[in-house]
Amino acid sequence: MCLAVPGCILSTSGEDFSRMGRVDFGGIVRQINLAFTPEARVGDYVLVHVGVAIATIDEAEAERVFAALESLGEAGGAA
């Protein structure tokens, strides 16, 4: 199974296939390749898989994913 995690773009640099962004994942900031999401801008949320943004999503969708991931963590902790 693959998992894509939402993050908020803080800054961008480069263009085309070398386009990168600093993305915040709830306090953890990583450099992410933005080549597949040319429409993504600072403040947008992106779904990231293996260091590559694969889609842009709205803030409401990002919050739903955060809630689902949190509930998985709580279920996993109960075992």
Automatic annotation (TrEMBL):
Q: Name the Gene3D superfamilies on file.
A: 2.30.30.140
Give the family, as the similarity comment puts it.
Answer: Belongs to the HupF/HypC family.
User: Lineage of the source organism?
Assistant: Bacteria, Pseudomonadati, Pseudomonadota, Alphaproteobacteria, Hyphomicrobiales
The GO terms describing molecular function are: carbon dioxide binding; iron ion binding
- InterPro entries the UniProt entry points to: Hydrogenase_HupF/HypC (IPR001109)
Q: Which domain of life is it from?
A: Bacteria
Q: Tell me, which GO biological process terms does this entry list?
A: protein maturation
Organism per entry: Parvibaculum sedimenti
Q: What is this protein called?
A: HypC/HybG/HupF family hydrogenase formation chaperone
Q: Which SUPFAM superfamilies does this chain map to? A: HupF/HypC-like
